[in-house]
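Homework help thread (please don't just give me the answer)

Our assignment gives two proteins as sequence + structure token strings and asks us to describe the second one. The first is just a warm-up. Here they are:
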Amino acid sequence: MNRCHITDRRPLGGVGPLLEVIARNDAAGVDLIQIREKDLPLRDLSALVRDAVAACRHARVLVNTRVDVALACRAAGAHLPAGSPPPSAWRPITPPGFLIGVSCHDIDELVQAGREGADYALFSPVFRPLSKQDDRPLHGLDGLRRACAAVTIPVYALGGITAENSALCLQAGAAGVAGITLFQS
């Protein structure tokens, strides 16, 4: 099962504890670590990304939104929120193998992400999110199944993912699961 840890240092008590969790998840075989620390100043974000890249032996580190930071810190890729410039806009300045993922909230966005060169997509919310309030309609397993069938890029289920429902997401066609709480609790 492909697994993507999306970071949030705040419930952990800061960057130091977050780096410990990142190292633990890397050792446990998590595939992707998405650094999603939107409120960190640039210098602090860059330091966190460099430290995460240095700590990871297995997981590929991605940076949320900031392609420039990902490139400068030698991360494996970037993750783009919905509404960002498309992956194809970034390809001319990224090295071969640089991963670009996209957040998607409906099938049309998934199809567009695939068309625009995304390497993978996070599809949410499948279930009620555990780490934040999200008023968007839930897709459930049937919605996830339809979404995965609509595209050829790998789709990671996001939103309310637990150890108990992860296998159901895979059975619905997801390539993997993503989350904050799942990997930080």
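The one we have to describe:
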Amino acid sequence: MKSWPYWLAATLILAGIIHIVAILLWPSFVMDRLISGLEARSALNVAIHTPRADENARTVVRPSPDLIYTICAFDVSQRPLAISAPVPQETYFSLSMFADNTDNFFVVNDKQLTKDIVEVVLVKDEAQVTELGGPPVVVAPSERGVLLFRTLIQSEDRFDTLDAIRKQARCETLSPAPQS
């Protein structure tokens, strides 16, 4: 007659299933919305230099007003992506790459770079690597995702200079290799 243990067990099982589904699906849903929004705003594989963060800015999740951002929704399903940006001097700079499930799979900052420019080629798999040469190659764990360049504004006096430098950041689809 006591049916409450069965209801409790059923509720816990249902809660567990909902929890697991949410954990597995929510990150991909969030990233898909972000990529679709960026694609509608500009295009895939194009750097978008976002306005300075304020209380209304939400292109980047939880943006900092001390940073300026360039964002690029990528799709490497057909062609590799060439990524480059000048590295500003005497301030923090980073390039982060996120897969379609929000996993951060690559990051480099100004302290790790030996040149005044960061250059990387992003590919979907090793098969694309054989036709490339030059900059380091990063293999993306998903065909779509997001790149995020961050630059710290240490002083308002440097904002215009830093903004001009960050607007030189690029993410562009590489052309097919010439056929011989």
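TA reply:
I won't write it for you, but here's a hint about the kind of observation we're looking for: The chain has a mean pLDDT of 87.
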